[in-house]
Amino acid sequence: MKINHGVIFAVLLATASVVNANSQTGVDTVRDWVSFLASDELKGRANGSPEITLAGDYIASHFEAAGLTAVPGKDTYFQEFNNDLEHPYRNVIGYLQGSDPKLAGEYIILSAHYDHVGNVDGTIFNGADDNASGVAAVLGLAYRLAALKPKRSIVFITWSGEEEGMLGSQFYTSQPWLPLEDAVLNLNFELVGHTGGLGKRQFWITGAEYSTLYSSLKVIGSRNDWSVSRSPFADLQLFWRSDNVSFVRLAEDQETQTLYGIPAHSISTWGQEGHYHKPHDDADALDYENLSGLIAVTSNMVVELAGQPEAVQWRDNGQLRLRQFKDRPVHSE
Predict the structure, then answer these.
(1) Which of 214, 265, 246, 249 has the alpha carbon at shortest distance from 322?
(2) Closest-CA residue to 153 (of 202, 109, 111)
(3) What is the pLDDT of residue 9?
(4) CA 333 to CA 327: how far, in whole Å?
(5) The pLDDT value given to residue 22
(6) pLDDT for 276
(7) CB burial of residue 27 (10 Å; 0-12, 13-18, 19+)
(8) Which of 96, 185, 251, 302 has the greatest count of CB atoms below 10 A from its CB?
């Protein structure tokens, strides 16, 4: 799919005004987002490439159009780092102030990685489901939540460097732009574009047994005619293999074998369809009706979670000792 870069931002502004005015993230709009990010001209969004720079600029332009600001105290959407490697990286970060003065000091992080593997032996890997679909979910949530005005603040982050070892989320947690003690939840979106394996109007979360999030999402989902399940691929240990884990293990007390972190889980609709890290992970294969619906239902979920007096908590699970980061003892740092 070829795109004329000269008209990208004109199209972006026109699309943004429609989405913002209607507070909607319809099928055609979501398809346009993924089709741009997963186009041949972005050459697979490899880290360090000119194309991932263009993708980051595109995401930041949507954050601005949706009404997000830079994080308080910053004058940019871009958190830049190089991690002592040859090329630079940029996380893209937007901020939505909470509407309730009593709760706005706490925040929920909504995230997805926007890099992919680029050109492999002369073949472009476009990465539509992995992870243009997750980025589209974050963009859609930005538009919808800006209109819905959740009580807690919301931080929107698209990570770079995930394909090279979750570098973006690890860098952010080492150099956070807001106090991590004030973060109450991370929802990370990973491969949310396909429904061929597991069906429509459902998603699963990683680490369902580790916090109170799963039970809350199931209740809210059922009210919206969506099904929420535990990861059907327990043997893959996906809770530990996506960017959410950077928030899980912020500190450790080795004496008590306790991890101190923020409840953080990844959301996915992947059903082992066979496109993961393959050249046929293309935009025309995604289910945009379902992805648009996923954005709508998760925006309702975030609004409800952001308004609950008690935030999501780690729970005893018989496997791990997980505790809130803000409750860590000093000697665990």
Answers:
(1) 249
(2) 109
(3) 54
(4) 12
(5) 43
(6) 83
(7) middle
(8) 96
**Which tokens is 302 given?**
């975030």
Instruction: Convert the pLDDT of each residue in 188-223 to its tens digit.
Output: 999 999 999 999 999 999 999 999 999 999 999 999
Check if the beta carbon of residue 13 is closer than 8 Å to that of residue 65.
Answer: yes
Spatial separation of the C-alpha atoms in residues 74 and 48, rounded to whole Å: 23
- Listed in sequence order, the residues at least 6 apart from 23 whose beta carbon sits closer than 8 Å to its beta carbon are 143, 144, 147, 148
Q: Which residues contact 111 (CB under 8 A, 6 or more apart)?
A: 138, 156, 157, 158, 159, 169, 186, 187, 188, 189, 243, 244
Residues 6+ apart with CB under 8 A from 171: 79, 81, 83, 89, 91, 161
Q: Which two tokens stand for residue 108?
A: 């929920």
C-alpha distances out from residue 91 to 10, 147, 239, Å:
24, 24, 21
Superfamily in which the 5-332 domain is placed by CATH: Zn peptidases (3.40.630.10)
Q: Report d(CA 276, CA 269) in Å as an integer.
A: 13
What is the C-alpha separation between 27 and 45, in angstroms, rounded?
23
Beta strands, E only, 140-226: 153-159, 183-189, 202-205
Q: For the chain, how long is the longest CA-to-CA vector?
A: 58
d(CA 161, CA 50): 14
Q: Are 55 and 114 in contact (CB under 8 A)?
A: yes
Query: What is the domain partition of the chain in residue ranges?
Result: 5-332
